[in-house]
Amino acid sequence: RHRSASSHQHTHAHTHTMVGDGDESDPSVKWRGRSVDVAEAFEFPFESPPGGCLVRYNFLVQDGYELGFSLRQGTTDLLATVSAGCEGEVQVRSAGMCTVRWENTSFLAMSGRWVSYELLLIPTEHLLLVQRRRLLQLATAGELGAVREALKELPVSAADEHGRTALHLAARGHDRTGGIPALGQPGRGHGPG
């Protein structure tokens, strides 16, 4: 039985797992593929959550030949490159259907290429929560210099999921750190909210 190259179905070892590193509130998702056949192209869709997400990617073409790699949201290219392997991250700014694609662009396109990859999707809302939690850990520990650095990215009113702010937690350790006056200084903690 003969099948044309355009109707060739690819087989692949593609897994999809929730990630959390023990944190049940972590909604991150990981896709991993080992020795995926890219005779012409291999792609898969994923949904960006409300508020967008950060996509971290890493792939390697096993024979060292270059493949086209792209990440799209709808019809908009967020990333397009040709490489035998690379890693990086792409910010997806809004909710919506996205597609990751590898394409065999070589003149030997009939000859399959094998790629191994890993993609990690981290919702933007979760990244912000992690930043706020870290700020509160620093405030609790009385690490004023690190708190000041963190406040360049977050407002002083940034709260965790329990409504606690750095000011609340610094107040608990005020006797040993003197942190409250420093957090209230003009120009501190007026980052994006």
Query: What percent of residues adopt helix (DSSP H or I)?
Result: 10-25%
What characteristic shape results from the CA principal axes? elongated
| Radius of gyration, CA atoms, in whole angstroms | 22 Å
Q: What's the story with the biggest beta sheet? A: 5 strands, antiparallel
CA(first)-CA(last) distance: 61 Å
- Strand content range: 35-45%
**Can you count the beta strands?**
9
Task: Encode the helix/strand succession as letters.
Answer: EEEEEEEEEHHHHH
Strand order of the largest sheet: 1-2-9-4-7
Unreliably modeled segments: 1-12, 18-22, 185-193
What is the residue-mean pLDDT, rounded to a whole number? Answer: 76
Content-based structural category: alpha+beta
Q: Work out the helix count.
A: 5
Describe this structure in words.
By secondary structure, the protein is α+β, with helices and mostly antiparallel strands. 21% of the residues lie in helices and 39% in strands. It is built from 5 helices and 9 strands. The protein has helices at 124-141, 144-150, 166-172, 174-177, 179-183, and strands at residues 13-18, 29-38, 41-48, 53-61, 67-73, 76-83, 85-92, 96-103, 113-123. The longest helix has 18 residues, at 124-141.
